[in-house]
Amino acid sequence: xxxxxxxxxxxxxxxxxxxxxxxxxxxxxxxxxxxxxxxxxxxxxxxxxxxxxxxxxxxxxxxxxxxxxxxxxxxxxxxxxxxxxxxxxxxxxxxxxxxxxxxxxxxxxxxxxxxxxxxxxxxxxxxxxxxxxxxxxxxxxxxxxxxxxxxxxxxxxxxxxxxxxxxxxxxxxxxxxxxxxxxxxxxxxxxxxxxxxxxxxxxxxxxxxxxxxxxxxxxxxxxxxxxxxxxxxxxxxxxxxxxxxxxxxxxxxxxxxxxxxxxxxxxxxxxxxxxxxxxxxxxxxxxxxxxxxxxxxxxxxxxxxxxxxxxxxxxxxxxxxxxxxxxxxxxxxxxxxxxxxxxxxxxxxxxxxxxxxxxxxxxxxxxxxxxxxxxxxxxxxxxxxxxxxxxxxxxxxxxxxxxxxxxxxxxxxxxxxxxxxxxxxxxxxxxxxxxxxxxxxxxxxxxxxxxxxxxxxxxxxxxxxxxxxxxxxxxxxxxxxxxxxxxxxxxxxxxxxxxxxxxxxxxxxxxxxxxxxxxxxxxxxxxxxxxxxxxxxxxxxxxxxxxxxxxxxxxxxxxxxxxxxxxxxxxxxxxxxxxxxxxxxxxxxxxxxxxxxxxxxxxxx
Length: 605
Prior knowledge:
Layout: H1 7-20, E1 24-29, E2 34-37, H2 39-45, H3 53-58, H4 68-75, E3 79-86, E4 92-103, E5 109-118, H5 120-135, E6 139-144, E7 149-152, H6 154-160, H7 168-173, H8 183-190, E8 194-201, E9 207-217, E10 226-233, H9 234-257, E11 261-266, E12 271-274, H10 276-282, H11 293-299, H12 304-310, E13 314-323, E14 329-341, E15 344-354, H13 356-404, H14 408-437, E16 443-446, H15 448-465, E17 469-473, E18 481-484, H16 485-505, E19 513-521, E20 524-531, H17 538-543, H18 560-570, E21 574-580, E22 584-592
Parallel strand pairs: 17-19
Antiparallel strand pairs: 1-2, 1-5, 3-4, 4-5, 6-7, 6-10, 8-9, 9-10, 11-12, 11-15, 13-14, 14-15, 16-18, 19-20, 20-22, 21-22
Helix pairs in contact: 13-14, 13-18, 15-16, 16-18
């Protein structure tokens, strides 16, 4: 007689069992759409709504070439098979999949219920166990109570061939009777682990000295019928020890003569290796043999050793500083490696590259760039002075010829030309003196966004009077950085002023704009001034940074962009531009954070 389930149990089964089952369950229609799935399925494979089964299981764009579900739709027969797909994190997953057809009243299969059981860890464990058995660096065999070999590992098969089923004393030693010193017999007798030395004979006149250990393979009830014997060829071990001595001497020589500092700490944080370069970097006395972890921690960046011990396998600091025993700070590149054998942490290796020389070269490069800018300035000065002299000579010619010929119109024209160009000479010389003299830059932690907003506010009225849209664009927050506020303010002022002039000179009378944009990418601060003004042709672009060039006539001396370039170089950055005639221009300042000045005492020379 069938027992009817209570209503509350029946309701719970109908409402909750589907999601309570600890296996991934999905319902799939004939078009491979997943129309329903439980929580376990979503936890295993991720989102499934409005997706095809092959997209969820296999991350495919089309149906699988061999589809067990498709076959179940055709013949209505349930199937069980092992599959490989991707879990919700995109990792390969192995699972047992049961495909169960669901038939309607007419016997037609309209849906397939697929139940998946994740066996990734089980499969991984099986492979690891097989790999361990086959790849463990010793010979392994399993022996029954009749002293017959029932299983061997790959290493032993490679040494002696297939000896499964043979008597161990016959296969290993060529004996006709059980060995007197048989360690397997001792283990069978008392159930303990035993070790001993044996000589195996294999091949013609070839023997191997083995260190053998036998252990019982116990069942759940603690009884055992099998013994595992592990045999290590100590002959090869002795040879290996000799080779390791040679290798150790070789590595010691390499480590000690390396140009970079190398240190190693064991799993107890004791310093076991420190080479000459590391001693030189930290200024360790040669007679100081013992160096403690605490001493090293004080010299390295704060908390670095602890972070490495608890962190990922590798840690890399592109640029940092370490302290010497004398209290000096040394710029270095610091790399750490967590050392492990199998799953056991055995220590940390540190590689320290002294960047003092590289930093010196970088400083020299920056200085060379500044000197190059000075050279360009001098060349521009010569060009500008030549043009002014020609203009003055023209004015003198008109003045003299007017006086000689009593022509007041020529006298007046000559005087006007002399006055204009004398004023231009005065402005030119003052601006050049200000440019060449330079000033001390005062470096503080400044907010780039604040500088940009202030420059935009400064020019807001002028831009509005000319019908130009002036805006500040900062898509994402930018972290403050060390820089000279006034210097960067002047850079943006020059660029925004030029951009507004470019819009005024454009034939466009509407929809002109100037945008100041601040962003950061790959630890580089980026200032951009963008306009859709008159733009520059090839000839103008070639002269922008090379001399006292201006497109403003008497309105400028051509020093704005040179001053901007100089300030940018003082901050360790670069300035570039793109421009198309009639389309506008974009000037970009790139300031790598690692090259920004760090001291308030930096003086331009």
